[in-house]
Amino acid sequence: MRAPNGIPIVQWTKKQAMVLAVFCLAAGIAGGWSIRASRSPALPGASKATIGPAPAAMGGGPASPAPSPARLKEMADAQAAPLLDKLRSEPNNPDLLASVGNAYYDAQQYPIAVDYYGRALKARPSDAAVRTDRATAEWYMGNADAAIAEFNQALSYAPTNPNTLFNLGLVKWQGKKDAAGAIADWEKLLTANPN
Q: Which of 8, 110, 121, 154 is the most buried (most CB within 10 A)?
């Protein structure tokens, strides 16, 4: 088949189109993550949604070294302090618990974030966004199996959640070397969220 100008038209196979789509999606996520990393930390309550590069890779340039883990914890403690004060009067408030989890997640204090996300999920088990955030924290702690289990639980409440499907595919691909499983999740993602 040829275009009107005589140049041959190449038909893409489904596999070629999928590889291009996954590449473009990964490039977009990486670009977005690098832009996000150059801005100030997210506000409490913001979803962690998408797994980005390993946290150790997010430091500044040579002139601005990354803060130490102890300094990051101090910053998270300061950001969480007013939320923890509110939590004393509302100890089972899932929004406050998730916000505290987010403060510790942003400071790469993943075990503490997982604890607060878990408490939020006891109060509101069907919160797919918090389950996805908890799963990404598990992933950053090196717990691929726990992350996959949490992503699957999130999908039981929100089967077409794009962040959950995308991140589940990444963990299957990078953590379990399950490329077929990752592609299957990304195909679900593209089918459920064509835009």
A: 154
Local confidence band at 56 (pLDDT 50, 70, 90 cut-offs) = very low
Secondary structure class of 23 (helix, strand, coil) = helix
Residue 80: C-alpha distances to residues 43, 73, 90, 162 (Å): 11, 10, 15, 28
Tokens 């075990």 -> residue: 111
How far is 142 from 125, CA to CA, in rounded Å? 23
Written as one letter, the residue type at 126 is S
**Measuring CA to CA, how many Å separate 139 from each of 24, 71, 174?**
23, 22, 10
pTM comes to 0.66
Distance CA 177, CA 55 (A): 20
Residue indicated by tokens 């509110």: 86
Identify how many contiguous H helices and E strands the chain contains and give both numbers: 9, 0
